[in-house]
Amino acid sequence: MPISDRFGFLKAPITIRFNNGWIKPCPDHASVLASIEEREHRDGYLYPPCISSWSQCLGSADDPVPIPNTTRPAAVFGLMPSHDIHVADFEEGGDFRHEDGALLVHLIAFLYETRLQFDGWKFDGRIRTRVGSFLFREDVAEHFIASVYDRWKTWTPELRRRFITILYMFGRAQSCLWEWERFSQHYMVFDALYAFQLKNGGQKIGGHGKRLIHMCNLFGVAADETMFENFIKLRNALLHEALWDNSTPGEAMGKDPNVDKWLKNFNARLIVAVAGYQNSFSRSKWTHMGWQPFDKRP
Question: Source organism's superkingdom (predicted)?
Fold first, then answer.
């Protein structure tokens, strides 16, 4: 059956077409974008608004009165939608927002290195709004999303759900304030990718170092054994000793202030390869700053 929904907020006014549907900007995209840009911080993030509690007597016509000392950042908050999404042949009785819709929305968020959510649903924490580092043309984005969507539909329901969760957590990790928090969540994403290949009939590998190498060999992703050793050292100390690079988490930055970015870049290449979209990006070096060209799969 045909189904339509809305999500946001994506700054890019892109239109994407795939075999059985499309994604296009909402009619008021430009005006809502202007209001978003008025609120976003100069650091490239949108932060939760502050909220307060108010009091009003039941049945009273008086205006509500603010309760002192109740102002705090909202735990969750919503945004206006930016895009319409339509799928022509969604399975009747299915849960679009947790199935096909979730895959498409979080896949676009992955490509643009932001977080997206359905209209009326909420975000927790801050949202990255600045331009991501993946460099691609719109036709490449369309081909990538359509190809991964087709591949995703061939998987079992459990694998589909796991891949959606991987995409969601990849985006959420970038919302964390501290490098050790971002690193921890990105390592969760790697563990989830390893578990995904196990559930997909892959080989069980003992030891985190061997798992990192195994995933590189299996999916054609560039390996960096020196960086992998650092990942494992940081991960073990953080999870088993509550230490971040031999210090208290949050007290000081680690020796490599970009280590969470390297793990994020590595995971991004694994996600693309696991989805069956092996391209030059998925095989490229991931320990560098700046633009990361994202090309169409041959």
Answer: Bacteria
In tens, the pLDDT along 107-164 reads: 999 999 999 999 999 999 999 998 899 999 999 999 999 999 999 999 999 999 999 9
In single-letter form, the type of residue at position 6 comes to: R
Instruction: List the Cα angle 10/168/9 in 5-degree steps.
Output: 15
Q: What's the number of domains the chain is made of?
A: 2
Say yes or no: 87 and 33 in one domain: yes
The pLDDT of 28-33, averaged and rounded, is 97
pTM value is 0.95
How far is C-alpha 156 from the geometric centre of its chain's CA atoms?
A: 22
Looking at the domain assignment, is residue 72 inside a domain?
A: yes
Do 232 and 106 belong together in one domain? no
Is 135 found in the same domain as 89? yes
Taking a C-beta distance cutoff of 8 angstroms, is the pair 182, 198 a contact?
no
CA distance 107 to 18: 13
Has residue 161 been placed in a domain? no
Q: Are residues 117 and 80 in contact, defined by beta-carbon separation less than 8 angstroms?
A: no
- Does residue 101 sit within a domain? yes
How much is the mean pLDDT over the chain? 95
Tokens read off for 173:
């990790």
Parent domain of 284: 178-298
220, 278 in Cβ contact below 8 A? Answer: yes
Same domain, 241 and 204: yes
What are the pLDDT digits (tens) for 250-261? Answer: 887 778 889 999
Q: Dihedral of CA 205/279/265/223: which sign? A: positive
